[in-house]
Every structure is written in C-alpha cells, then in structure tokens.
Amino acid sequence: MFEFFLLVLMGVLSGVFGAMLGIGGGTFVVPLLVIFLHFPIHQAVAISLISIIATSSAVASENVYNKITNMKLGITLELATTLGAISGAFIATLLSTKTIELLFSFVMGFIAYFMYHHKEDLGENNYLQTKSVYASSYYDFALKKNIEYDVKNLGAGLIISALAGAFSGILGIGGGVLKVPAMNTFCKVPIKVAAATSNFMIGVTAAAGAFIYFGKGYLKNPLVVSLIVIGVVLGSKLSMPIIKKIQPNKIKKVFVLFLVYLAIEMFIKGVK
Amino acid sequence: MRFDINKFIAKILQIGVSLSLILFCISIVESFFNKTNHFEQSFIGILKGLYTFDANATFYTGVIVLMLTPVVRVLCLAILYLIEGDFRFSLISILVFLILIFSVYFGIH
Known about the structure:
The structure holds two protein chains of two kinds. Chain A has ten helices and two strands. By secondary structure, chain A is mainly α. In chain A, helix 2 runs parallel beside helix 10 and helix 7 runs antiparallel to helix 8. The two termini of chain A are 31 Å apart. Chain B contains four helices and no strands. Chain B is elongated and about 55 Å long. Chain B has helices at 5-33, 43-51, 55-84, 87-108. The longest helix of chain B has 30 residues, at 55-84. Chain B is an all-alpha fold. The interface between A and B is large, with 45 and 48 residues.
C-alpha cells in the first residue's frame, strides 16, 4: 500500500512542476524512477512519455480555453518536434542505459545554465506595425491586461523545436525546457504564451515518440504506469489555479534549482 | 454565435484524457481480482482481454486512447482550419497528422 501511495505522490509532484514550468512533468518522472526505483531507463522514458501526454492534454485544454496558447505557432513547430521525436525514439533504442543517463544529465545541466543567464524578453517591446499570420494577443491574469505580440524568427524556432523533439524522444522529457526559452528569446513570444504553446505541442511530440516505445514493448508495468499517470494529472490540475497568479521570475528560480539537482543526480548514476 | 475553435480543441483533449484515466482506474481495480500474466500485446489480444475484464487489456486500451488523443486533436485542427478557409494551417496540420500516422504504424507493428 505504501508503494501505491509513493507512486501516486511521485506523479502528483511531477504534475505540479511540469504544469507550472511548461516542461510536461516527464523531467521529474524519469530521474525518480531511475534513481529511486531502479527502473531501466528505456522503461522510465516510455512511462514518462505517457504521463507527458496526459499532463500536456490536461493543462493544454485549460490554456487553449483561456486563449493563452498560440495554436498556429504550435502546429507549425509541431512539424519539427514530431519528426525530431520519432528520430529520437529510434536512436534511443540503439543507445546504452549509461549513455542516455549521461546525456540526460548534460542536457539538464545545459538548460539550467541557459535559464540562469537568460533574460526574459517581453514580447510587447518588440511589437511592430507589420503583423505576421502568427500575431496574436492574450489576457495576462497576473498583470491584469491584454498583451499583443508577434512571432519573429520562425526558422530558429523550427530548428530548436526539432532538437527539442529529438531530446523528447531519447530522454522522455517534454522538450519544453528548450522550446520555452527559444520561443521567448528568438521568436519574441511572451513567456506565458511560450509555456502554454510549448505545453500544447508537448502532447503531440510525446505521442510521436511514445508509439515507438510502445511498439518496442517498453510499457511493461500496467499498475505502476496507471498510478503515476493518475498522479501526474492530479498534480497538474492542482497547480492550475496557482499558475495564473505567479509572476514569471518566480517560476524561473524554482526551475533552475530543480534542474541542477536533477542533472547532478543523473550524472552520478551515469558514471557509477 | 461563431464556432469557437479553442473550446472545441479543449473539449477533445479533456475527453481523451478523462476516458484514458477512467480506463486506468478500472485496470487498477481489475488487477486486484484478476492475476493474468500471460498476456498478448496485440490488437486481437487486447480486444479479447477487454471482454474478459483483463487488467492488462484495459490498461493498454487506456494507453492507446491517451496516445491517440493528440493525433485526433491534430486531425480536428486540420478540418477546422479547412472549414475556416485557412488553407496554409490546414495543410500544416495534415502534414503533422501524416508524420504521426507514420509513428502509429511503427508502434502497432
């Protein structure tokens, strides 16, 4: 019974972090299963991808409903993320456990470093008269006003999305950790729109990779997977009322600390 | 009143997740009563298992429903953009859908 509780709790925590940061929860699921429950990493990645689809869909439906998500930008970048995810999943089946663990720690470390030095670009500062087809606006609940923005440098966004998709396929992370800062820095999209749009894409990206893992038979423990996924959805639902009230900078600080911890734990596991 | 694309997409995602979660819950309950370890992970095997209240079959049905939710969402987006006359985004959605079908094909095989 204690194990049941532990698995659900693990899911809840992943869901809360994932939804708050727009990273899909998987970043938390993989290291927890690998480090604490000694799961083979391929299985952990498969479970993670499944829980990512659930979180992303649960959270995305709220964001889409509130019109924070830029669906046109999302669907365009999905071209790159899905291709990346399928390639990534195939590559992962060829890689050893240790290689994936080390790669996981390096990617997390790099992202933590990038986020720490990255200054948030407010979309409204770069707003021009000529609008692209991706131009949109959303109501910011924290700032209590309507914010208009346009999308820049779509090419850079596509390249990074493909990379994010590949990492999603190999590591079972949402890839939001790459896409959110990329959309914010290169595409000049406000951070909340970037997080919501990233979350919207994560479900499709994870599904593209998940089918490959499913086909290879990596989804083995029905009870474990069910409990984690239920926990993840609960967690992401619980964090929805909070996410609307928090200022972006507070999110970032938690984000960086959390990533550094995961990177170190995974690195130790990889070199052991 | 104009049809709201956002609300429709939100609904699809909600239904997909809810349905798969219900199936997961049922499979957890079933696993207390049924201990079947010889399970065939194939389309026919899953259908047979569903009929006999096999926990694994219910679980895999839930997984498939969950994995297909984003795929259905992409297809709906393609159709909705087409209805709106936005051909550029309809085409992009169809391309994403085809990429996903490629993945589904490998997954089920």
